[in-house]
Structure formats: structure tokens, C-alpha cells
Amino acid sequence: MKLLQRTGALAAVAALSACATSVPAPHVTAQVPPQWQAPLPHHGNQTELANWWRAQNDALLVQLIDAAQAASPNVAAAASRIAQSRAERVAAGAALAPSLDAATSISRANQQSTLPMGTVSQAALQASWEIDLFGANRAARDAAQERYDSARAGWHDARVSVAAEVANQYYGLRACEQLLAVTRQDAASRADTARLTELSAQAGFQSPASLALARASAADGNSRAIAQRAACDVDVKVLAALTAITEPELRRQLASAGSTGNLAATGAAGAGAGATAGTDAGAAASAPAIAIAELPASTLSQRPDVFSAERAVSAASADVGTAQAARYPRLTLSGSVGVANFRAGGDNTKTDTWTIGPLSMTLPIFDSGKRSANVEATRARYDSAVSSYRATVRQAVSEVEQALVNLDASAARSSDAQTALQGYRVNFSAVEQRYQSGLASLFELEDARRTRLAAEQSVINLQRERSAAWVALYRAAGGGWSTASTEPTTGTSPAAGTDSANRNGTPALASPQ
User: Which has the minimum average pLDDT: 2-16, 162-176, 392-406?
Assistant: First the structure.
């Protein structure tokens, strides 16, 4: 009885000293602007952001994204981190409950005493329990839970990143094919001009200098077409590596989908360089619109990387609590119940055994500052996690703002680019007719050709930039992730961990007053 009283007194003293040292806050605020500085896009659907790819009516794009996510090592590594953190969470939670082990033994001995030689066999259930007086095990469990939630968000972040990368590559491939069609048409036009100029020179109507210029222009146009075809081939190879689809199969799918025209025929072997008649630079595919919440805090709360960074702060706070609790006494209780049998001379003697205890307390006295150093180290990691979280929020704001600026700028430039293209097309047609009638020089024709070609390429590249800006906005807005999103279904239920994510809620973002 006196031992229990002394143990309780020591525990009370330690508890009072524990209260004197506080654990840092598990949730911190990050300052975000009260509103976006760039204009917001219109006519988009924010609630369908997770299914944004399917809204584009491009089955091949969806298939490529699914294939890339299945083959991505980053997504696989993120799924592995979920499995590891789930196991660590189970182990940390198990430390709060008693453990039960079964033990058996058998021995035979001959003692120099009145006892005869015999065989002793025993079987027992042994239990032990660490009474979590100062919350060390609870803090470890909380830290494991936060890391598990962070790993789940990290898996979604990896999938969104892969989807954005594949979409950018896919849109780049489409734009490249359109540029290839434009350069082939331009090369065919230059070759035709060179042929006509050669006939005129042979008849004495064109000078040798004009013929040399026409031939140089044709060679330059053909060179541009070859370079553009090589660029498209490179894009196909990059897309094949991302999706783990063989290049011949990928080219077949691209050709059957009609998304890249005759690109499937422009392999490394090099198909014919015939022009794709009727290609319109203004017909490039564009990603659909996305709606963004007017309040930045609402948008950032749906980013998995921001959520993961906040969970890291909470886990670091719990780690501080674990390190602090290691400086205080530990109280454990053990016991066992079992049976024993002693066999000697053909006779069996059976007994039942049980014990309660010992109730033991371990009180740290001197460790050369090891435990204090561990506390300081965990506090330093907590400060680092807070700094990283706030930097993640600032970067998230910047990414959304940049995407919005690029979208607004590309929209504003689109009308001017189309107007310029139409004007340069009309001008080139007029100059070409005048040249064929002998009323314009070859120099005028080549100058009009250059300006028209630049305008064609400008429109295609502008639409490519706009698609890239939409993809960047999709990525910056979190890709439709929420705290209720499911995790990989491998080896677990898809809804595992959802309750804890909902319990933790959204990141603690604060807008300045």
C-alpha cells in the first residue's frame, strides 16, 4: 500500500512538471490574400474538376492519363507511403492497449535434493500494459494518424501531377501536328513557286537571282517541315514513356482517334512529306473552362499538397509531445495466468499459476541531457514544418495567380491573333496572284509568305499556351481533391481513413483583415 502511495505521489509531481512545458499548437494559420488579384475565368464548373478530363469528350486523353497514372513510379511510391503510414498508425494505436502473449516451456532436471529427477512443463498467458500517464503513446498515435492523412493526400497530389503532365504533353503533340501541317503546306507552296520561277527563268522572264531565291526558299521550307516532323516524333516518344504504351500502339491509337491527323505516318522511318490540305491553324483543340472560387482560402483548402503540409505540422506537434513525455515516469503493469505440470517417477503433479504485477515505475534521473536534446530537436522540426507549410501556401497562391494571368492574357491576345492571321492570309493570296501575273516580285511574295507563316504559327502556339494555362489552373486548384477522397484500393477498403480526414477538416488558412 505504501508503495502505491509513493508511486502516485511521484506521478503527481511529474504531472505538474509536465504541465509547465507546453506542446506547440498542432494547427497554425497561413496568411492568404482576401481575393485574387488576377481576373477569374467564367463559364466553368468547379464541382466537376475531378472529372475535368472526361468533360473534354476526348476518350484517348482519358485513356492516356489512366495509363500514365497506373505506370507512374511517383504514384506507386505515394501508394506505398500510404501502406507504410497505415501500418505505423495501427502499431502506434496498439501501444495504448494491453498486449497478450502465450508462452510455453518444458525442462527436465536432476537436482541434488530430496526432489526426484523429473520433467516440468508450463503454459501461460502473459499480459503487459503501459499506463499512458503523460500521453506519450497518445501523442505517437496522433502523429501516426496525421502522417497517414498526409500520405493519402500525397497520393492524390501525385495523380494530379501525372494527369497534368500527360495533358500538357498531349496538347503539345496536337499543336505540333498542326504546326507540321502548316509547315508542310508552306513547303509545298514554296516548292511550287520555285518550279514556276525556274520555268520563267528558263524562258528569260526571271533573273538568276530570283531563281536562286526561290530555290533557297523551297529548301528552307522543306528543312522547317523536317525539323517540325522530328519535334512531333520526339513528343510521341515522350508520351509513350509516360504512359508505358508501346510506340507503335500509341501511334495507332493516335491515328484511329484522329487527334493528331497524319502524325502516325510520320515515324522515325519518315513517311512522305505531302501537305495536309485544308488544315486550319484556328482549329486547335482547347481545354474546357474551369471555375475558381472567389475566395483564395476556399481554393487552397482543396489542394492536397497544402493539406499534407498542414498535417505535417500537426504530426510534428505530436512528436514534441512524445519527446516531452519521455522525460517523465513510465508506469507499467504486468501479469500472467497459466498451468504447470511436474512429472517424476510416472506421477503427474499439476498446479495452476497466476500473478498480478509487478506494477513498476521507471523514473528518469540522469541521461546527460539526451531527452532534453530530443525535445529541442522535435521543436526544431516543428518550426521547420510550420515554415514549410506557410511556404507551400504562398507557392499555391502564386501558382493560381500565374495561371489566371496567363489565361487572361491568352484570351486577350486571341482575337488580335486571329485578325492578324486572316489579314496576312488575304495579303499573301493577293501578292501570290500578283506574282503569278507578273505584277509583284519574288521578294514581295516571300515577305508575304513569311508573315503569313508566322501568323499561322502564332495562333497555334497561342492556343497551346491557353491549354497549358488551363492545365496549370487545374493543377493549382488541386485537381478536384477533397478530404473525403478515397485512397488506393489495393489491400484495403477505398473508404479507409475517410472519417479521420473529415475529422481533421480543412487547412487553417487565414485572410488578412
Answer: 2-16
- 145 and 182: one domain? yes
Of 363, 381, 416, which residue sits at a domain end? 363
Residues 483, 345 within the same domain = no
Looking at the structure, do residues 122 and 229 belong to the same domain, yes or no? no
Does any domain span residue 184? yes
HEC string for 134-155: CCHHHHHHHHHHHHHHHHHHHH
Q: Can you give 15-58 as a three-state secondary structure string? A: HHHHHHCCCCCCCCCEECCCCCCCCCCCCCCCCCHHHCHHHHCC
pLDDT tens digits, residue range 395-427?
Answer: 999 999 999 999 889 888 988 999 999 999 999
Helices within 294-367 (DSSP H only): 296-300, 304-325
The number of distinct structural domains making up the chain is: 2
Give the C-alpha separation, 30 to 35, whole Å.
Answer: 15
Q: How far apart are CA 375 and CA 224, in angstroms?
A: 65
Is residue 36 a contact partner of residue 401, using CB atoms and an 8 Å limit? yes
Domain of 63, CATH number, reads 1.20.1600.10
**What amino acid occupies position 88?**
E
Q: CB under 8 Å to 339, separation ≥6 — which residues?
A: 122, 123, 124, 350, 351, 352, 353
Q: What is the pLDDT of residue 1?
A: 44
